[in-house]
């Protein structure tokens, strides 16, 4: 249900002598608040108040005022187009939700009708204002969209006009909320709404302006608005002048910064320019992160006669000003170090201020995308103490922003070679992937094809040889199935499309299942000797049994690949009293170089390289293990003393608790 006609148009049609005027949004806000203040200040009983908001978000800004108005009257009606949870209700006052495409969504109404006075504000937003604001992004920084909004309409204390406006709005209310018919009828009877009165001109209703209420709240609200507007204008002039000065300095420093990508040169230029322009005795810029306990002063500007601290170590751990900057993410200003409790209560800062003769102190963080990169400090060492101006603080903040961007650019340039190396590594990974998948798919396919062709073309082949051919084809098809399964498993784990089913398990049972998988796999040669050493008092673990067995099987299978037949594989588990059980799969095989202990868990990693492999596999097994262990909240890592020294793979599992299942056991899905 939507109504296309305008309340303002209907009002002007009913009372043709009315002449609409132009209002800006700020003026309407002041008028509306003045009308509401008049109701709040009056001692009248049960006035009729009808307010129509274009959107729910505008209503939300005034909701608390209408709760106060509701204490004055039970005849309060608020209309708005819903955006979240605004709906027809009668909690504090009557809420009326109209359709967003209703003509009301372009209008602004406030009507007050009391026994001894009436006033109304009926306006419609101009089409030019609507089109202009729609072209501006809703959250454009620095743009005040409300400042340009204009409305045309009527504001008057003429009772006949207010009565007619109330009638038009009450008619709308009844369309949306017919359940209010009795309440609306009562209001109409009390205030004479709907009675036939014809006003041919304005002079015939001059007596309607007379009232015996105190208009002081209304006048005070408008005077306050005018004073605030004058103050804002004066402040704007001052802001423009300060902004021009700030932009000149920022541009000069930005130009100096753009001449060099060397971070040391950039910081020295910034310290020099900022210190000179603000007349500081000392300007320091140094690198620092939130967790640092010390910093080295590398860049400094000094005026003649000021003590230099370039190259010295600057204490940060016990520096309460630095910690305040880190905690709040904004600058700290000290006007007089002799009277500031942050300085006088800190022995470290008191000593620094006395030693360096600092009387006024400013610390501004250099931040880029929320990360602390460094600090800008300004010291004033002369008397009287420096009185910080808002424009100066904004200026230092703007320069710190420029420095942050310059540091990131310089670091990016310096790290270009490292990025190129990473790209080369990614290219090698891609090549390895192609080589691995090509080898792992082509080789078994060729074998299967040869075996099947032999069986198909040689019907007289001995039964024993036929069995060999079949076994070979089955073995290689299993190899291909495992390759595809590993790809799918890793993909599901990384994307979160895995449903976990945790349960309390005995670790020994899971180890036995993993070893049985290894023994029944076709084509597997005799593995090395496998021993288990599990403490009899080991607590139950909490994990998904299938995935735990999968981790154990892959780790043992990996150990078998790189351990000779005469070697040994040992599976052990310990519990040191924490909430985790640590499982270790150790072998006496080829070992791992120390610099490769972490990358062995990368996808497609091959210890010998993609094209020089003596052991089969896709390089996905350990990557799958890491994803599974991370899934239940554990850790996995490798240890080895080097080549031919054997290796150990450790992972942790949560112990079973008596409480309900942990949060990680919830279904994970994307």
TrEMBL record:
It comes from the Bacteria. It holds the Pfam family HATPase_c. The keyword Transferase applies. Residues 436-657 form the Histidine kinase domain. It catalyses: ATP + protein L-histidine = ADP + protein N-phospho-L-histidine. InterPro entries: CHASE6_C, DICT_dom, GAF, GAF-like_dom_sf, HATPase_C_sf, HATPase_dom, His_kinase_dom, HisK_dim/P_dom. SMART domains: GAF, HATPase_c, HisKA. Keywords: Coiled coil, Kinase, Phosphoprotein, Transferase, Two-component regulatory system. CDD domains: HisKA. Transmembrane segments: none annotated. Residues 409-436 form a coiled coil. Its EC number is 2.7.13.3. PANTHER family: SENSOR HISTIDINE KINASE RCSC, TWO-COMPONENT HISTIDINE KINASE. This is histidine kinase. It comes from Nostoc parmelioides FACHB-3921. The lineage of its organism: Bacteria, Bacillati, Cyanobacteriota, Cyanophyceae, Nostocales.
